[in-house]
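[job 0417] fold request received: Nucleoid-associated protein IV50_GL000694
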Amino acid sequence: MFGGQNMQGMMKQMKKMQSQVQSEQAAIAETEYIGKAPEDMVVVTFNGDRQMLDMQVKPDVIDPEDPEGLSDMVLVAVNDALKQIEADTEKRLGQFAPKGMGGF
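[job 0417] inference complete; emitting structure tokens
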């Protein structure tokens, strides 16, 4: 029985940490992240599960002679939102990763 209580304490702590991680993951999933292109020409909204919920495009950016310009604006806005999700995930869940193990 040597260390039995210590093992129980560790298991209790692990379950608590698991519950906290699940809570943070749920909060991230419910958060909306808004990515923007310069001058808000394209604005996209994602949830924490990386699903696009909305996209707004200013009419000024729609140029039939320059479809690549619109594509570029969409890419900038989408990448902006995804970077926000990644940063928030790292901030919220990074505390639970062992040092040097990041990668949430």
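[job 0417] notes: Helices lie at 4-30, 67-93. Residues 4-30 form the longest helix (27 residues).
[job 0417] exit 0
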